[in-house]
Write a structure and sequence with these properties.
- It holds the Pfam family OmdA.
- It comes from Epilithonimonas bovis DSM 19482.
- InterPro entries: AF2212/PG0164-like_sf (IPR037079), DUF1905 (IPR015018).
- This protein has 2 domains: about 5-85, Beta Barrel (Elongation Factor Tu (Ef-tu), domain 3); about 95-150, no CATH class.
- Helices cover about 35% and strands about 25% of the residues.
- It has 6 helices and 7 strands.
- Helix 4 (about 105-115) crosses helix 6 and helix 5 (about 120-130) runs antiparallel to helix 6 (about 135-150).
- It starts with a strand and ends in a 6-residue tail after the last helix.
């Protein structure tokens, strides 16, 4: 692991939504040799691990703090300690067997799914795995195939 970058920042609220982010106070070109999105791993307040990206917002970069992360660190829009480093590991989404079987039966949907980004794949699988009832899971799997056949990358 490369030397981590540490800083403290105020969690900013995105417009009127329950969405938070922090500004990244360093130059990504200087640190990572990249102007655009930078894949990172981070630890917030020393205990909440996160795998995501620094997003280029035109006048610098920001790091999104999901609601789950903010809940884990018991913060809404307060100060947070951040330790992060560039994530150079390949990102792989583990596809459950039942979902893989359905994808294998639908070649066009599978081709589209295989070409999608890690994030979009992760969203689909998380959406299916999040179902509390088996009937909901089954409906979501069918809906996923329909959406993939329509060329929809996100949920």
């Amino acid at each position: 692991m490369a030397q981590p970058i540490t800083f403290s920042a105020e969690i900013q609220q995105h417009q009127d939504m329950n969405a938070g982010y922090v500004f990244f106070p360093f130059d990504t070109v200087e640190l990572f040799g990249k102007k655009g999105q930078v894949k990172i791993k981070a630890i917030f307040d020393g205990n909440a691990e996160y795998r995501g990206s620094l997003a280029n917002i035109g006048n610098g970069h920001c790091l999104i703090l999901t609601q789950a992360i903010r809940k884990q660190i018991s913060k809404s829009f307060d100060s947070v300690d951040v330790k992060l480093w560039e994530d150079k590991e390949e990102r792989v989404v583990l596809v459950p067997e039942d979902v893989q079987a359905l994808l294998d039966q639908n070649e066009k949907a599978k081709e589209f799914y295989d070409k999608m980004s890690y994030t979009h794949k992760k969203e689909y699988i998380h959406w299916i795995d999040d179902a509390k009832k088996e009937e909901t899971r089954e409906r979501r799997k069918v809906k996923m195939i329909e959406m993939l056949l329509e060329g929809k990358k996100g949920i």
